[in-house]
Amino acid sequence: MTLFAVACAVIYPLFHTGRPWLAVYWLLPYPNTMGMWPNFRSPLIWDVFAVSTYGSVSLLFWYIGLIPDLGTLRDKAKNLWQKRIYGTLSMGWRGSARHWHNYEQAYLLLAGLSTPLVLSVHSVVSFDFASGQIPGWHTTIFPPYFVAGAVFAGFAMVITLALPLRRLFGLQDFITDKHLDNMSKVMLVTGLIVAYGYLMEAFTSWYSGNIFETYVMKNRLEGPYRWLYYSLLVCNVLAVQPLWFRRVRYSPLAIWAISMFVNVGMWLERFVIIPMSLHRDFLPSSWDMYYPTAWDFSTFFGTIGLFLALMFLFIRVFPAIAIFEMRTLTPEAKVKEPAH
Amino acid sequence: MHAETRAPELHGLLAEYRSAQELLDATRRAHAEGFRAMDAYTPYPVEEIAEVVCDHHRSRVPLVCLIGGVVGALSGWALVWWTSSIAYPLNIGGKPYNSWPAFIPVIFECTILFAAFSAGIGMLALNRLPEPYHPVFNVGSFRERGSREGYFLCIEAGDERFDRTRTREFLTATGALEVHEVEA
């Protein structure tokens, strides 16, 4: 499951870059003939570092995690090319005890280092908004609220993808009902944190006494996009409440349906934060409506396609569940200390 | 031209066991017998076996990772400080050129990046991987089962207590299913 989630996470930086041919030019600090350097006080450059570190560390973690399994695939491979490709990728892994000794340490360290990275990448993304002045962006609650939102959306996505695979490949013994129960609980808790975030946004806009901040909330509740804000509340707050019940958490169909609500809800949250804050900023002269163009839609569907294509390719050629980790859970893997 | 160095004909003796438990017991006995140049091969990590084989030495990966993290933090700070204060000083909102609180995110990311890659690449380097050829792969049953369900112990010919016949007898006595000679 870890591997699977990491593999999914690697895809996100690809979506993030926006205009990659220009991004390299202004964003990466490299010596150039103009003698210019990026401004390291800008949250946009923090984001470049956060996302690229997140992407490369996830890729490393994912690859290191695959090495022993690639060794297994190499030994199972029937045709010569499969043997060569898996053999090269597995780096000649032979399961030596001396290697496992270092490997386990490295794997543990990478897991430990990835955890603060997950928190930092979403906090830094939220700084892009929070350090701007647009009402609806300029809030201190953003970093924890984005992290909770990311965990919420992440678990929903894992459930969305893992449940059909579990059914299709008969993986009920590996992704057990207990796992689903726990994932649902995490989704419920982070969903409540996100709901608290919505509540605090509303409270702060009222309590600030600032007309622009108050107007953000008024616009969300009564403005032209209000139906999106109400749908957001339905998807992200109401739809997850059935997870309080044990029967719901043990029903794959029910949690899959809830996870779809969350996927839609988290997309709506981005819409509420980004275009809805921009379309009514300080000056009424700059007010307008945002209507996505055909290109916006095709990019959006394109990313979904890319994601699914990469994921299906991954499942086709690599193990979706870490083989060696599963072996350590078998009864034969338990060894006893000698009797003294 | 005649090469002066003579390649050893035998890498060692490779014994196969039924389970991780039997392999662990055999490894312990070999260690007690005084063998040090040996290695165990399992399809998944078994901490107890690794401890015996590594003679209870701790892994050096955490140290490499720590050094990587410190180097990452220092080089991250050097990058932002040098570019913002020396190479290209810009007045941004009246902040000092070395406005360190605003540099924390970049320094933090560099720390993690270097630490993670030191742990990953350091692990591979300490394990001397990638290593496309290794003598144990000459044994057919190792190629077949080594990465799946086989539990192997190899006592290497480099060990000073190694003796082709007596070591074979010793391995058979530890309950090995089969003992193979590993060509170097």
Given helix and strand content, the structural type of chain A is mainly alpha
User: How far is the N terminus from the C terminus of chain B?
Assistant: 22 Å
> Helicity of chain A, in percent?
over 70%
Order of helices and strands of chain A: HHHHHHHHHHHHH
Q: State the end-to-end CA separation of chain A.
A: 39 Å
**What ranges of chain A have pLDDT less than 50 throughout 5 or more consecutive residues?**
none
Overall geometry of chain A comes to globular
Number of domains of chain B: 2
> What count of structural domains of chain A?
2
Quaternary assembly: heterodimer
Radius of gyration of chain A: 23 Å
Protein structure class of chain B: alpha+beta
Shape of chain B: rod-shaped
Give the mean pLDDT of chain B.
Answer: 88
Tally of alpha and pi helices of chain B:
6
What does this structure look like?
The complex is a heterodimer of chains A (340) and B (184). Chain A folds into 2 domains: 1-131 and 321-340, no CATH class; 133-290. Chain A is 72% helix and 0% strand. Chain A is built from 13 helices and no strands. The longest helix of chain A has 34 residues, at 43-76. With 184 residues, chain B is an alpha+beta fold. Chain B folds into 2 domains: 11-59 and 135-183, Histidine-containing Protein, Chain: A (2-Layer Sandwich), CATH 3.30.1340; 61-126, no CATH class. The longest helix of chain B has 27 residues, at 61-87. Chain B starts with 9 loop residues before the first strand and ends with a strand. At the A-B interface, α3, α5 and α13 of A face α1, β2, α2, α3 and α4 of B.
